[in-house]
C-alpha cells in the first residue's frame, strides 16, 4: 500500500514539474497593477519618426507644422486647431505624455526625471522637425518677440534640424502669439539671411513661397508685383494641398513640466 502511494506521489510530482512555474511580482505590486518603467533609451529620434509614419490619421510630411517657444504650448494647440495646423502634441499617442507618478504608468520614470524628460522631448522635437516640409510657423510669447530664446529646444534642436536638412523646409515664419498680422520671415532656403530676417512676408511671397492666406497684412499681399497671376495660382495650389480634411483637433494636452 505504501509502495503504491509513493508511486502515485512521484508521478504527480513529475507531471507538475513539467509545467512552467509562473514568476509573480510581490503581492502588493500585483494588487496595484505595478508595471516596469520605460527607459528613455528606447525613445530615439528614429523611433519617434517611424511611429509617426505609421499613424494613419496623419498626412505626412507635414505641410502645416506649427512650432512654438517657451510658455506657448496651450495657445499653440488652440491656434493650430483653429487654423488646421499641427503641433508636436498632435503627432504621437497621448499615452507617451502620461506623467502621473503611479505604479500603473510605465512612462512615470521618464517624466519625473528632468534629464530623461529633456532627452525624451529633444528626440521627439527633432523627429517632429524632420517631418516638416515647405513653410513652417513658430509662435513666440509677446515678451520674447523681439529676442526669441536661443537656449531652448526650438533653436537648438528644431530650427537647426530644419535649416540643416536637405531641402524639406523652405521657409520659416514667426508669429507673435496669435496675432496673424504680426507674421515675419525668419529664414528662407534660397534668400540670404540678411535680406529676409524679420522682414515682411512679401519677401517670400515674391519668390512663390506658400504662406497661409490668413497671415500678414493686406499690404504684404499686394506689395509690388508679388500678387501677379502666377503667384496667386501658386499660393492657391499650395493652400489647397495644405488641407487634407483630417482634423487634428484633439483634447488639449496639459503637460505640467516646462520643457527647456
TrEMBL record:
SUPFAM superfamilies: N-(deoxy)ribosyltransferase-like. Keywords: Signal. Residues 1-18 form the signal peptide. This is Uncharacterized protein. It comes from Didymella glomerata.
